[in-house]
Specification:
The protein is α+β, with helices and mostly antiparallel strands. Helix content is about 35%, strand content about 20%. It has one domain: Gcn5-related N-acetyltransferase (GNAT) (Aminopeptidase). The protein is built from 7 helices and 7 strands, in the order βαααββααβαβαββ. Helix 1 packs across helix 3, helix 3 packs across helix 4 and helix 3 crosses helix 5.
Length: about 260
């Protein structure tokens, strides 16, 4: 008889945990096609090998975390107690995390003070101006246009900026398949106003499908880096340079799926 997996506690992250969360994010996104494109990675990185490229990715993910925190965002974690088989003692481990930007708060190039305080200079030093152009212009402009068209098509008068925006959600590869992604999303839904809307960009087809099961509707598939990179975000030419895809999605009505928060 197989023992059931212990449930995780969903709670607000503590600033003292930010470094641990950034390292978790690096493990989760080290093969992500969109992150490969943003960072101009020349090859797929090895999750188990330290490298300057992996450090650069972690700096960017920490920047996203800090910017969310400084904009008053919601940063939540799924925490598990793992028992040490030799000592019998349990240790609290962060298995997954989510960064939610609040309504009317978004990363923007004109928010210079906030960007600098969040660590954008370090990101620029590591990834260069190419990353700034890809993230700040190509990606953000495509995302804004897709969301605006989606809201208009659904006759929603308010701006997409009035939604909660999922800046990042990740599960440690060691804990994948245990439902932490769903738990974090449902927790955010449970603690929002009944009229709240939630928006996001999924960066893989697998995550797109998971969000669909959580009530998110695909608004548009965005294509980034056509003619520059292959589907994994690595530089390519010719017919292989198809670019990477990400998926603009909206949850229009969270009311039917509002569980009780597990945080104590």
């Amino acid at each position: 008889m197989t023992a059931s997996r212990p449930k995780a506690l969903i709670r607000t992250a503590r600033p003292t945990e930010f470094r641990e969360i950034a390292m978790l994010a690096r493990r989760a996104f080290i093969h992500d096609p969109v992150m490969n494109y943003f960072g101009s990675h020349k090859k797929l990185l090895n999750r188990d090998v330290e490298s300057s490229e992996a450090g650069n990715l972690e700096s960017f993910l920490m920047f996203l975390l800090e910017s969310c925190y400084r904009e008053g965002g919601l940063i939540t974690v799924a925490v598990k107690n793992i028992e040490n088989s030799s000592s019998g003692e349990s240790q609290e481990v962060i298995a997954a995390a989510a960064y939610w930007m609040p309504p009317h708060k978004r990363l923007a190039l004109w928010k210079v003070n906030s960007l600098v305080r969040s660590g954008v200079i370090k990101v620029l030093r590591r990834w260069g101006l190419t990353a700034l152009m890809r993230i700040g212009f190509e990606y953000q402009n495509a995302s804004k246009a897709a969301m605006a068209a989606g809201y208009k098509a659904n006759a929603v008068k308010e701006s997409p900026n009035a939604s909660w925006y999922l800046q990042l959600l990740m599960t440690d590869p060691a804990f994948e398949g245990q439902g932490f992604m769903s738990a974090l999303v449902r927790d955010a839904h449970a603690n929002a106003a009944p009229s709240a809307k939630f928006t996001l960009e999924a960066t893989t087809a697998a995550s797109r499908d998971r969000y669909s099961h959580l009530g998110y509707e695909l608004v548009k598939t965005l294509k980034l880096g056509e003619g520059k990179v292959d589907a994994s975000g690595i530089p390519a030419t010719g017919k292989d340079a198809v670019g990477v895809e990400c998926y603009s999605m909206v949850n229009w009505d969270i009311t039917p799926d509002r569980p009780t928060r597990t945080e104590k």
